[in-house]
Design a protein that fits this description.
Chain B: This is FMN-binding protein. The complex is a heterodimer of chains A (273) and B (183). Chain A has 273 residues and is an alpha+beta fold. Chain A contains 7 helices and 12 strands. By secondary structure, chain B is an alpha+beta fold.
Chain lengths: 273, 183
């Protein structure tokens, strides 16, 4: 097994290859890291020069987002529509207002919008209103998915990519994953040919976890009101990540309908489907 | 942000803390990292540097972070007698433990790449840190290297990536103060 890690996507990104197949693992890993770096460079909200920052800075104008940017926006828009806007990438304005994200624009912006504010044509996109799009987790998950595709294309038969908890495992070998909450370890599971992401719901602001997500609707009745762990398994890391946010304000049925499932009902018994 | 806002508006604080078995990980050996960061180099000449207290103070005042160790492992990297750059191995504190990493710095004082050699956190803390501070490539001392410049400041947070960033700035400072004249 070969493992490499790099500081990337705002975290320590780890690639492990358990079955190299016919691939040159060093080249495969370097290519996968490079691909993730490209996605990070063009789609980070924190980088003033990224394509995403250009999109946010010029509402109503078409901006070239590149192939990956356009695909992520398309996925985000589709999930926004299918989840009745529970997954919403246009909340950047509200996050900037509370200081959770940096402000790169001097123009006024709306605190939030909806998936309908994003228009996509080919690789170009524009915002119909001055909202700020933030792709955070979905872009990180997408980068993980792309890294896995890159490794597979190089001939790698099995391995995993983990970027700050957006984890995807592929090939014939599963890996053991410890899911834990702030109280300690809660469960162990084997993950094989799937992606897993987790989010924390509730509790007070925590300097260790500065990101915020805003949910517009009230949580469903059976949603946990105290701090808890929300984890979703899905075929792709982008979807697993996005669905943890959907799960925060929707029933698990909706998550299942959107292609995810909850790995360990023990930590959230009330919401077990 | 007040508690009432937190409760009323349903602010959800996402956190990523899924860890493949959370144990210390050794990723690369020094020779492997050298090969990855300088694939075309023909020789790595070890040039360990011993800093006295005056040198450590100078590094601290230029870099803003303390130079903990006296001994800094440095290699001069050459290809056919020509200087390719510098390879340095360094430790920074992650959440609780040291992260050992290697940096490649060009003769002009730019970061050519970073490789993590060992990560020793025992509780998977690395995957909980979210600083969005990422690509070191091409960074030089001309860059701000400040958390507030393009990443929101988080008081009290100890972020592995941020510490790596501080470490890299310190290595660039060492390059400028002690190695650049040889370039």
């Amino acid at each position: 097994m070969l493992r490499r890690a790099k500081p990337m996507l705002g975290t320590l990104t780890d690639i492990r290859i358990t079955a190299p197949g016919h691939a040159d693992v060093k080249v495969a890993m370097t290519d996968a890291f490079r691909l993730m770096s490209e996605i990070d460079t063009s789609l980070s909200f924190h980088r003033p020069m990224s394509a995403l920052s250009s999109l946010n800075a010029s509402p109503m104008q078409w901006t070239d987002m590149g192939r990956h940017g356009a695909r992520i926006l398309w996925l985000a828009k589709a999930l926004g529509r299918l989840s009745d806007n529970r997954f919403n990438v246009t909340l950047g304005g509200a996050l900037v207002t509370v200081g959770a994200l940096p402000c790169h624009t001097e123009a006024d912006f709306l605190p939030c919008g909806s998936w309908e504010d994003i228009e996509i044509k080919g690789t170009r996109a524009r915002l119909k209103r001055p909202v700020l799009v933030t792709l955070d987790g979905i872009a990180k998950g997408y980068a993980v998915d792309m890294a896995v595709s890159c490794l597979k294309r190089s001939g790698v038969r099995a391995g995993s990519v983990n970027a700050g908890g957006d984890l995807k495992v592929f090939g014939e070998y599963g890996i053991k994953v410890l899911l834990r909450n702030s109280q300690g370890f809660t469960d162990t599971l084997w993950l094989k040919n799937a992606a897993l992401a987790s989010s924390r719901l509730g509790g007070g602001p925590d300097a260790r976890f500065p990101s915020l997500i805003i949910c517009q609707d009230a949580p469903p009745e059976n949603s946990p009101q105290t701090e808890s762990l929300l984890s979703v398994i899905a075929p792709f890391a982008w979807r697993a990540d996005a669905l943890t946010k959907v799960l925060a304000s929707a029933t698990p049925d909706m998550v299942t309908r959107l292609g995810g499932h909850i790995p360990y009902p023990a930590s959230n018994p009330e919401s077990t489907p | 942000m007040s508690d009432s806002l937190l409760n009323n508006s349903l602010w959800f604080i996402p956190m990523t803390f899924v860890a493949a078995p959370a144990v210390a990980a050794d990723y690369l050996s020094i020779p492997l990292a050298q090969q990855l960061l300088f694939p075309s180099a023909s020789s790595f000449i070890e040039r360990p540097t011993l800093f006295d207290s005056g040198a450590r103070s100078a590094i601290k005042s230029h870099a803003g972070t303390r130079q903990r160790q006296d001994h800094q492992p440095i290699w001069r990297v050459e290809k056919d007698g020509q200087l390719q750059g510098w390879f340095m191995v360094d430790d920074v504190i992650g959440k609780h433990e040291y992260i050992t990493y290697a940096a490649a710095i060009s003769a002009d004082g730019e970061v050519m790449g970073i490789e993590v050699l060992s990560y020793r956190e025992t509780h998977g803390a690395e995957v909980r840190d979210e600083s969005w501070r990422t690509n070191f490539k091409g960074k030089s001392l001309k860059d701000p290297f400040k958390l507030d410049e393009d990443v929101p400041n988080i008081s009290g947070a100890t972020l592995s990536c941020r510490n790596l960033l501080d470490g890299v700035k310190r290595l660039l400072t060492i390059h400028e103060l002690f190695l650049a004249r040889e370039s």
